């Protein structure tokens, strides 16, 4: 009981203090640095001669809202598949993402739109911040159920900085193309989370095994997440690309790729399933791999056939990963990957980066015409050959893997700080530790919660 | 049993008759008065020389659809948190909102777009009607579970008229700015509903207390509502503002404000929670207060820092309201506020109005440049000082509170008409009174429903 | 047990083989035929002198995304009302629709955008493919719970071809107007599915009756589908119409029509309900009939009053259909219509076609002005009178009914192929046959699944 009260006191203080501290810090930084950009400022917008219809808002905001829905509805509900962790999945998603949107506006702003001592913001910074939140939520998926909210906020605090730095190196130093973030978002977020989970390895996690599965309706809640991710992924990959044919082609390629990953997921899931039955986990996740795998190349002249082939491959690899590789990852490599982010974001992200290498290497003036300037400006200007662009793309993948791994290590060490409130191995995947849960579940939970065991993290 | 049959007969007739009567009346009024406007009429649109791309549709419809999702998905599911009132929450939302869209098209049309004997409609009237539906659904939240559908339709019949009148006074007589409706929607809807709930006070409501809470999955359904409100609030506040920088800035400010109200909600919820646990009610509601509080000022040069500060304050006030003020409101002031609309819409709405007073009072030609004309036309034209605009804004708040209070009183008296089918105090928050509910819940409900008690309303 | 293993082996092979075969075939056809169109190709787009803002993407993509949400979220969850068929409803929706999007891109492409040996694709082909998926999912609704996924894919394989052919006859040979598809989508999809269900008649289906109802939370999941269909239907009907006033007016008419069908649904549902109680099935479905019934005419000068009247009628007919006609359809005509698609898509679709006949017949140069060219080009060019257009519209309905009936027959015969894995009459509406279902439901299901009976289909 003393232990319980100590933990309750810790909970009561840690999360509020951290929220207030972080919010205070970002608010001060906002006051000092953040300003409306030309497209959002009343005075700046009216300088010069242009039509209201030219405002960037109209070209990006509808797709931004699709991305926003993916981050909050998609990721939030996709992770609600656990039978007793729905409050945390959805609730911590909104908490983590809300902080990330603020913090990443600052970090990405310093790297990308810092002029004359100020960061200028508008719909593009909203999009970029949401993208960063995507990476943070992917990492969250790897450690879902095994960390408290204060730990998660600290993870975001670190990850956002490394995300911004990695993105800056790729996009602004290496001039790598990665519109939909196969590298910067999916590969980075997945390996950051996986390495972090490896550092946080919980040897007695099987004591929480009975809570690690789904129930019938929690799987349907998760399908809400899946479907919103599925339908809006074309907007995700296309929202930051060049206007006109760029956004249009990217959306189209992503749409095709997802249809193919869906078909291969159903095929493989039934093929490897017990008695030929389909597995909901595969449909919830691997069907989405087609969106990840064209994150780099959907902007390029991938061709509709190329999109289908890529999606098909990604769905296959992802489904097989869930079936065969996740158990090995846990037992042999000691990486406990709650949501299987290695299968949905890790492997398809790396594949997507490699596909980008391939498609960039095949770029010709003939295929892109005058559009080459907007997709591969350095090739169009003669500063790089297609082969050189391909090599830079490949190098971008390595840089990402290094940033993610080092970051994940640092993150794991940070989250192991002994004073942080972390759930014991026997109480993972359990909402009641952090939430007041309505009556019906109390009976189920009182057993393990009353017989509280020493925190194996400490 | 006789009582039960009488009630069943009343139910069978009241709702159908009222629906048919109201639909018949609005249909006739539509036939007489409502016409396509220049942007929706085949003949009118082709007069003059303009591009199809100039049609208002392309500048407002995508954001309108976000608002539409908020009204139906957002409000509907947010109120589905009650364990046995999900059918009514979602079903009556669609019923009430559908009627309001028609009726408000007429009422707002008479006030705002009545020319030559006709009301002209297009995407702006769709937006305005949805906004009015938002106010009606806020009022519904205060009395959720305590009224029947016929009563609710009568409430909407009255409220829409007063909403339209109040909006007309504020926007067209006082020239108050209130794009996202901190006053016209949130303050009006909340206090109308709260006063109405006070008139309808149910002294023996504790007999329905066991149904007033949530169950695990009903809380997750409610989170669907929360998240759709959260993500689309930037569209809600920005959809009626001036094109270009106006919409862009409003969306950006709202986005920041919501992130801050989310952080303060989590901080405060854990701080005041039992054992430091988070309360789902706070996350479902108070996290949204950031959208309400910038409803008036998001259009103005609030600055990104201002948006964060406002959101932070609103989340704090709202969470503390749920924890400490709602019980007092019920026990001392005799206002039973089912959804806590006082905390989500009432106090944040008033705060939002006051913030509008402050930001309007600080308006300068320097800060707004040539954009002053579109935000504060009377200041730009020299007819008002910033201070005068601020005073008008403040006066608008008082007008709103008066309209809402008087309207809520009238509404309460209307809903107390003895022949109206109203649930008895012991059968509130119960779908079975109005819906055929599938088997699983019948056992639970037969007790109270069979031992039907006299209606304390009558 | 031998029977069970044989069936398991069949399951394990049929679905994977079919998925791989179909995906392989469409991929090859994509490689040979499908190319980016002028608006999505990097090189083609940069030929000539036009602004990026002119790209079709910006005029159609936001509404396309609404349609995409309707197909996957709307149809998927609307069909999740069954207590033990949620995985299949949502899962097979995504599978069927994913295949249809690919296959229909090819079929519709051959009919509508085949030039110089290639099919050119962009946002319009995405929209058209989604529309075709809508028709396939309507047919799925008629046979929901009574077929396996391999059967469904074969149905889609056939239906997509007939859908494309029927659409080609109507739109390109008869020059019939049908923007929102009252005929091509709703009437076609419904009667194709109903005739198919009649061929597949399951005489002992009452053995699965206990699974045919909903449970409380499955009805709420279904309401997610309903509401997404309801809010986005204005986008569905308007997305393919001419730019400017065409899209604008179509969205507005649909919006009004849906409000009226909602009011008539509530009125009628209470009027005919047991003890005057509302029926969730009516609200979930009939409230949407207003979207179906203006599918042909919303583009025309229907007038706002006309939209209300049409919606009111459709909601009335649909609700009465659910109450009185569906039982007769099953007992007398031997058509088992799981979702009642006859009431939501069949009758309202036919009514919508007839309304199109009426409104087309009333078209005048005065009412449409210069907009006549874009709504009725043949009338504007003097090649047809309004009466002639009306007669063509009516003929289009007959053609559709013939294509649907013949197609449904062929489809039924195809699905009765004895080697196809079909659920026995006693195991319909049951996820466990095709899915690994988490623990809680196993007890319920083990009875019927263990005592497996001979397949009455075989």
Automatic annotation (TrEMBL), chains A, B, C:
Ranges for domain Ammonium transporter AmtB-like come to 26-418
Instruction: State the UniProt keywords alphabetically.
Output: Ammonia transport, Cell membrane, Glycoprotein, Membrane, Transmembrane, Transmembrane helix, Transport
Q: What is its main location?
A: membrane
Which Gene3D superfamilies does the record match to this protein? Answer: Ammonium transporter AmtB like domains (1.10.3430.10)
**GO cellular component, as recorded:** basolateral plasma membrane
GO molecular function annotations of the record = ammonium channel activity
Give the protein's biological function. Ammonium transporter involved in the maintenance of acid-base homeostasis. Transports ammonium and its related derivative methylammonium across the basolateral plasma membrane of epithelial cells likely contributing to renal transepithelial ammonia transport and ammonia metabolism. May transport either NH4(+) or NH3 ammonia species predominantly mediating an electrogenic NH4(+) transport. May act as a CO2 channel providing for renal acid secretion.
Per the record, the similarity remark reads: Belongs to the ammonium transporter (TC 2.A.49) family. Rh subfamily.
Q: Indicate what this protein is called per its UniProt record.
A: Ammonium transporter Rh type B
Q: Which organism is it from?
A: Vicugna pacos (Alpaca)
State the organism's lineage: Eukaryota, Metazoa, Chordata, Craniata, Vertebrata
Encoding gene per record: RHBG
């Amino acid at each position: 009981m003393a232990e319980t009260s100590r933990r309750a006191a810790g909970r009561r203080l840690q999360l509020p203090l951290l929220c207030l501290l972080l919010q205070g810090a970002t608010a001060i930084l906002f006051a000092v640095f953040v300003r409306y950009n030309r497209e959002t400022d009343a005075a700046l917008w009216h300088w010069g001669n242009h039509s209201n219809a030219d405002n960037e808002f109209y070209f990006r905001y509808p797709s931004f809202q699709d991305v926003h829905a993916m981050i909050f509805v998609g990721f939030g509900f996709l992770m609600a598949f656990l039978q007793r962790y729905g409050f945390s999945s959805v609730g911590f998603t909104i908490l983590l993402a809300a902080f990330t949107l603020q913090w990443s506006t600052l970090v990405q702003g310093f790297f990308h739109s810092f002029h004359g001592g100020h960061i200028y913001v508008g719909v593009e910074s909203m999009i970029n911040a949401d993208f960063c939140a995507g990476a943070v939520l992917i990492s969250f998926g790897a450690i879902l159920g095994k960390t408290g909210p204060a730990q998660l906020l600290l993870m975001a605090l670190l990850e956002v900085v490394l995300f911004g730095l990695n993105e800056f190196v790729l996009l602004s130093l290496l001039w790598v193309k990665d519109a939909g973030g196969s590298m910067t978002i999916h590969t980075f977020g997945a390996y950051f989370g996986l390495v972090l989970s490896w550092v946080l390895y919980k040897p007695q996690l099987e004591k929480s095994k009975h809570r690690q599965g789904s129930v019938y309706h929690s799987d349907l809640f998760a399908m809400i997440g899946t479907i919103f991710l599925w339908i809006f992924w074309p907007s995700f990959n296309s929202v930051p690309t060049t206007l006109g044919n760029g956004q249009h082609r990217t959306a189209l390629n992503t749409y095709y790729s997802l249809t193919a990953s869906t078909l291969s997921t159903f095929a493989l899931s039934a093929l490897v399933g017990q008695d030929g039955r389909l597995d909901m986990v595969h449909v919830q996740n691997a069907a989405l791999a087609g969106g990840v795998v064209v994150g780099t190349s959907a902007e390029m002249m991938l061709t509709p056939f190329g999109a289908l082939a890529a999606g098909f491959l990604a769905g296959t690899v992802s489904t097989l990963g869930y079936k065969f590789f996740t158990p090995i990852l846990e037992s042999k490599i000691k990486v406990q990957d709650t949501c299987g982010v290695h299968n949905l974001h890790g492997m398809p992200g790396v594949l997507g980066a490699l596909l980008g290498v391939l498609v960039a290497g095949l770029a010709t003036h003939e295929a892109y015409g005058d559009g080459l300037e907007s997709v591969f400006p350095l090739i169009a200007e003669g500063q790089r050959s297609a082969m050189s662009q391909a090599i830079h793309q490949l190098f971008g993948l390595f840089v990402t893997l290094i940033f993610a791994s080092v970051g994940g290590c640092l993150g794991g060490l940070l989250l192991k700080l002994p004073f942080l409130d972390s759930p014991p191995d026997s109480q993972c995947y359990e909402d009641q530790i952090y939430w007041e849960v309505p009556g019906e579940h109390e009976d189920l939970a009182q057993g393990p919660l009353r017989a509280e065991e020493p925190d194996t993290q400490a």
